[in-house]
Write a structure and sequence with these properties.
about 110 residues; two-stranded antiparallel sheet; two-stranded antiparallel ribbon
């Protein structure tokens, strides 16, 4: 059986009196963020055109697309997501996509208010 190590009184006191190490909270990264998956790994969705009711392919990283049948612009409902509250959203999505999404959200809000 192995004996436990005996610390010198000075080292033992120094260990007990020292504050615990500061551990920074883990920063959310894009590969771990479930909210960014729709933008970083886009998939197609089919949304009915409000004018002609034909299905319009709209990828999850897109805000709007033109209907091939009638030319109407079709847009998705922009729900609250990580881009609304996450401090890393711009870094995660990339500045261009982040700005595009935020501009689209602003336009949608303006449409609803008018």
């Amino acid at each position: 059986m192995r004996r436990p190590a005996i610390l010198s009184p000075h080292l033992h006191t120094a260990l007990l009196d020292s504050p615990p190490p500061v551990v920074e909270p883990e920063r959310m990264t894009c590969d771990k963020c479930p909210g960014a998956k729709a933008f970083t790994q886009p998939t197609p969705e089919f949304i009915p055109c409000p004018s002609c009711h034909c299905e319009v392919e709209l990828w999850t990283d897109e805000i709007e697309a033109k209907c091939d049948s009638c030319g109407q612009m079709v847009s998705r409902e922009m729900l609250q997501g990580c881009i609304d509250y996450c401090q890393s959203a711009k870094e995660c999505l990339g500045e261009a996509l982040y700005n595009k999404l935020m501009a689209a959200k602003g336009r949608k809000q303006a449409e609803r208010q008018s």
